[in-house]
Amino acid sequence: MSITGKDRGYLSLLFISYFILGLVTGSFLNVCIYRLPLGKSVINPPSSCGSCGHRLSPLDMIPVLSYFLLRGRCRYCGATYSMRYAGVELLTGLLFMVTGLYFLPGTPLTLAFIFVAALVTITFIDLDHQIIPDEIVVLLIISGLAYLYARQTSYLEAAYGALFAGGMMFAIYILSRGGMGAGDVKLSFALGLWLGFQGSIVFLLLAFILGGVIGIFLLATGLKTRKDPIPFGPFLCLGALLSFLYAPYIIYYYWSIFI
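The chain above was modelled as a monomer; its predicted structure follows.
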């Protein structure tokens, strides 16, 4: 079936809307990344400058664009702020577009966006504070159950995935004697619920491969020493995202090598 010009226009608008939704969501995720580790509400008070405390107007919070228009500075006091704010917004926008390739518009896609947003939030909080907030793990579990219902996926398969991923990480947590955090165990359980048994195998393999390769690179380049903590949550999140979108292709490619 050929795609008409009208269809292309519709698809273009659809993916642009996903991108814009991701940018706006990323702006909110920046608030979550900053406030959740401090035990603050992500709703109140409204966003303000961290230096002068001035409440930010909507024009100050246009995703990505405001950062470049204001040259990374508060327009009230001139204090600089990190480019990472714009980076989180842009990353979320791009990930929403990629996720939209694999779902038709509807409830499963909405829940998939929640999954992606949770992974982005966990990644940056763990990088900053070496913690994984329980609130986001609970959100992943609740949204995961809703996703299973919406996709009419086997709850038994999801339970196997959760028990496998959570069990494997719990065993490593015990054997490593604190080398692996309890937050990683809880996160893996929640991710296994989303991914199922086969997806969880792919997710954990990818997480450990990526963690090992990047960890060796950081040590070899001197960016990290053996005494520096390297949070594992970001690798779990990246492995889970890749498994969520590409597990069937990865499994097919893997078996095609040996069969």
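DSSP finds eight helices and no strands in the chain.
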